[in-house]
Backbone:
């Protein structure tokens, strides 16, 4: 009979344990940061610290709903988005074609190696077959690398007016 060890956290599953650990860590962090702030502000005066929140309404960032792009900006964004989607589709099709050509070159090199290996008798013939296979693989890798480099990086999605690209 197999003895199964019970969890030291009686009745807790991992999710509950994670929640308790997170809560305990958060409480400990809050308590320690409050204590250091109190120690840092330990002065002999009895003044109450004031808030450091800016009172100017210009320093508060606007909400997303408050920034309304103009109709010209919306039209420009729609056009840029269509262009982006077309460019991304072309980029992905080109990348798939490059990877497909690479896969076909690798399969061709491997099938050639397999067929030649079955007919090879001496170690010298097998070594020549291996060398040819390695050369074909290197050529396929180089062709794929140069094609991907020529393709460049994928297109960048346009940004709406009033938003950042984060």
Residues:
């Amino acid at each position: 009979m197999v003895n199964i060890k019970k969890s030291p956290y009686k009745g807790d599953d991992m999710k509950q344990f994670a929640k308790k650990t997170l809560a305990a860590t958060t409480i400990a962090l809050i308590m320690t940061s409050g204590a250091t702030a109190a120690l840092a502000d330990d002065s002999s005066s009895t003044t109450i610290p004031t808030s450091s929140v800016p009172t100017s309404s210009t320093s508060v960032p606007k909400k997303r709903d408050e920034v309304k792009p103009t109709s010209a900006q919306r039209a420009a964004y729609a056009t840029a988005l269509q262009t982006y989607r077309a460019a991304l589709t072309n980029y992905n099709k080109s990348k798939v074609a490059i990877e497909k050509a690479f896969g076909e070159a690798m399969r061709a090199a491997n099938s050639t190696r397999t067929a030649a290996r079955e007919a090879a008798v001496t170690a010298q013939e097998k070594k020549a077959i291996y060398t040819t296979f390695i050369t074909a693989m290197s050529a396929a890798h180089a062709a794929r690398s140069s094609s991907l480099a020529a393709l460049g990086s994928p297109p960048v999605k346009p940004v709406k007016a009033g938003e950042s690209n984060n």
